[in-house]
């Protein structure tokens, strides 16, 4: 008896069962206190800038020869100011934005009906999914040579590049959203006397509206990637072009300035889409 | 004859071969009647309802409403599901009026009809609320009002209270009886809850499983004006036991056979 209890009785195990230790930082899928959240957000921006500042200042004072490769934040800011006051920056932003919005707008316009058709009808899915599945794995920048051959060096090939690069992902994301519309909702509509076109326009479309905005938001990022690539290859103005000119003259401060502007514009667009989602989809959250 | 189901047969093709979901189903529902079908899961009772609604096509046999053969869904057969029943972006009033809008009813008339049915289900003060702001029971009341607003010949309900807690369920059952008495709509409801079926309906079809056939038709002789106290009466409990017994024997057989 005593032997068996000694054998079994690992008191550490039986008396104190293993419990999850409490934590704030490492809580899985839970919110953290607002204060901590804001602190981390500030750190997320502040730490990289501080590091950049320290390293660039260190190089500038100790290895002056190499200072040209890593501009200090101050020099970058000066470059930004110079480009702005000369009016170059505004022209570049305007050109890049025009290309992004034209190409993306076309893709956005076509991807909604296409995605809805493919999501709602297995027939359209069978017809289009295989070919889209292949094309979307072709990197959009690989189309640049063809587009230049066909359309020259003007605005058309750049806009088309963004169109090609965002159309298919947008379409597939919208298609997936349609597949998630509850079948009961569609069937309820039939039993209320709804016809198929009414189901598409008055049930499926409003239901997936938040997903459409979100797909736009995600694919807007790739539109920005593509416009820079297109301008690196062939353009006379635009933010991508500014960067490649700066490279030729070893103006790293202007490269940094260009990168920061691209990042900030992207962030602003992203936030705009989030705001749009929040304002127009009160019902979804 | 109001709704008539004759020689209905439904077979599904699956990877493991064909499965007979329903076999030789014959039933009828009269004008203004409240009928339930009870059965265990796998009895094909949802399939039966979907066939009547026209959401599926029978392998053989037919469904007729007032003599007209059902070939697809329509507003003459309103449907209330258990889940995802409301359009989340529409207010309660817009949900209730949506069927009428789809059918092209002018707005003025529609508004009158909507306010009447919101009143019937006691949700007039929630007309401008969004579905996410409602409790489960309220959502189902909106779904019922929406189905009734089209003034269907029959209301089909697929376990409408299956997802509700016990207290809410009891309130909703009482509520449904009041609505039924007030609107005189024929109701055909599917449930696995025998007590619910005995409490609500005038007649019960007991279904077998795999394949789903009608095992028995039980005509209930209980007062039509009833509240939940009736559940304690011996007569009520006898009915309940009888039907439970039928289902129990049925599932024991299925275990032996399966």
Q: What does this protein look like?
A:
The complex is a heterodimer of chains A (285) and B (258). Chain A is mostly helical and 285 residues long. Chain A has one domain: MetI-like fold. Chain A has twelve helices and no strands. Chain A has helices spanning 2-8, 11-15, 34-62, 73-85, 88-120, 122-135, 144-151, 155-179, 183-191, 196-233, 239-248, 252-280. The longest helix of chain A is centred in the C-terminal third of the chain and has 38 residues, at 196-233. In chain A, 30% of the residues are buried. Chain B is an alpha/beta fold and 258 residues long. Chain B has a domain at 1-42 and 55-76 and 193-258: 3-Layer(aba) Sandwich (Rossmann fold), CATH 3.40.50. Helix content of chain B is 38%, strand content 25%. Chain B has seven helices and ten strands. A six-stranded mixed β-sheet of chain B has the order 6-7-8-3-9-10, with helices on both faces. In chain B, α3 crosses α4 (136-149). The interface between A and B is medium-sized, with 22 and 30 residues.
Distance between the termini of chain A: 62 Å
CATH class of the domain at 1-42 and 55-76 and 193-258 in chain B: Alpha Beta
Helix/strand/pairing category of chain A? mainly alpha
CATH superfamily of chain A: MetI-like
Tell me about the largest β-sheet of chain A: none
Distance N terminus to C terminus of chain B? 38 Å
List keywords for this structure.
heterodimer, A: 285 residues, mainly alpha, MetI-like fold, 12 helices, 77% helix, B: 258 residues, alpha/beta, Rossmann fold, globular
What's the quick description here?
The complex is a heterodimer of chains A (285) and B (258). With 285 residues, chain A is mainly alpha-helical. Chain A is built from twelve helices and no strands.
Show the helix and strand layout.
The complex is a heterodimer of chains A (285) and B (258).
Chain A (H helix, E strand, L loop, with lengths): L1 H7 L2 H5 L18 H29 L10 H13 L2 H33 L1 H14 L8 H8 L3 H25 L3 H9 L4 H38 L5 H10 L3 H29 L5
Helix pairs in contact in A: 4-12, 5-6, 5-8, 5-10, 5-11, 7-8, 8-10, 9-10, 10-11, 10-12, 11-12
Chain B lengths: L2 E12 L2 E13 L4 E5 L6 H9 L6 E6 L2 E2 L7 E4 L11 H11 L4 H14 L15 H14 L4 E5 L7 H18 L2 E6 L2 H7 L2 E5 L6 E6 L14 H24 L1
Parallel strand pairs in B: 3-8, 3-9, 6-7, 7-8
Antiparallel strand pairs in B: 1-2, 1-4, 4-5, 9-10
Helix pairs in contact in B: 2-3, 2-4, 3-4, 6-7
């Amino acid at each position: 008896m005593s032997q068996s209890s000694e054998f079994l009785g690992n008191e550490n195990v039986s008396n104190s069962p293993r419990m999850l230790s409490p934590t704030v930082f490492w809580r899985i899928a839970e919110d953290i206190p607002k204060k901590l959240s804001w602190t981390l957000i500030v750190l997320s921006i502040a730490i990289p800038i501080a590091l950049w500042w320290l390293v660039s200042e260190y190089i500038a004072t100790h290895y002056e020869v190499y200072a040209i490769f890593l501009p200090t934040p101050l020099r970058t800011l000066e470059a930004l100011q110079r480009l702005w006051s000369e009016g170059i920056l505004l022209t570049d932003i305007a050109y890049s934005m025009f290309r992004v919005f034209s190409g993306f707008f076309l893709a956005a316009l076509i991807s909604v009906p296409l995605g809805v058709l493919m999501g709602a009808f297995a027939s359209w899915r069978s017809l289009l999914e295989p070919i889209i599945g292949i094309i979307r794995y072709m990197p959009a920048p690989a189309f640049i040579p063809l587009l230049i051959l066909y359309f020259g060096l003007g605005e058309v090939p750049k806009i088309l590049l963004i169109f090609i690069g965002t159309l298919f992902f947008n379409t597939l994301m919208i298609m997936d959203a349609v597949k998630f519309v509850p079948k009961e909702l569609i069937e309820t509509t039939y039993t209320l006397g709804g016809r198929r076109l009414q189901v598409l326009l008055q049930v499926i479309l409003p239901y997936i509206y938040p997903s459409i905005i979100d797909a736009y938001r995600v694919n807007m990022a790739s539109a920005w990637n593509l416009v820079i690539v297109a301008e690196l290859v062939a353009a006379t103005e635009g933010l991508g072009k500014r960067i490649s000119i700066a490279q030729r003259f070893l103006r790293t401060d202007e490269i940094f300035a260009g990168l920061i502007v691209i990042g900030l514009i992207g962030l602003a667009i992203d936030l705009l889409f989030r705001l749009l989602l929040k304002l127009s989809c009160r019902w979804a959250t | 004859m109001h709704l008539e189901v004759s020689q209905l047969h439904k077979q599904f093709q699956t990877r493991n071969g064909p499965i007979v979901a329903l076999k030789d189903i014959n039933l009828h529902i009269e004008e203004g009647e409240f009928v339930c079908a009870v059965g265990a899961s796998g009895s094909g009772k949802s399939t039966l309802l979907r066939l009547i609604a026209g959401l599926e096509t029978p392998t053989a046999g037919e469904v007729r409403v007032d003599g007209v053969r059902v070939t697809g869904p329509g507003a003459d057969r309103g449907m209330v599901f258990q889940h995802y029943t409301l359009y989340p972006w529409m207010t309660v009033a817009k949900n209730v009026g949506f069927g009428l809008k789809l059918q092209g009813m002018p707005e003025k008339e529609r508004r009158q009809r909507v306010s009447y049915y919101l009143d019937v289900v006691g949700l007039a003060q929630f007309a401008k609320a969004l579905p996410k702001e409602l409790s489960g029971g309220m959502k189902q009341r909106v779904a019922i009002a929406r189905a009734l607003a089209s003034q269907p010949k029959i209301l089909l309900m697929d376990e409408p209270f299956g997802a509700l807690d016990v207290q809410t369920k009891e309130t909703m059952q009482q509520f449904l009886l009041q609505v039924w008495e007030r609107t005189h709509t024929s109701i055909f409801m599917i449930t696995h809850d025998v007590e619910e079926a005995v409490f609500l309906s005038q007649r019960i079809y007991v279904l077998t499983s795999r394949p789903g056939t009608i095992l028995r038709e039980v005509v209930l002789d209980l007062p039509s004006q009833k509240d939940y106290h009736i559940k304690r009466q011996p007569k009520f409990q006898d009915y309940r036991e009888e039907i439970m017994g039928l289902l129990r024997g049925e599932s024991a057989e299925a275990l032996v056979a399966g």
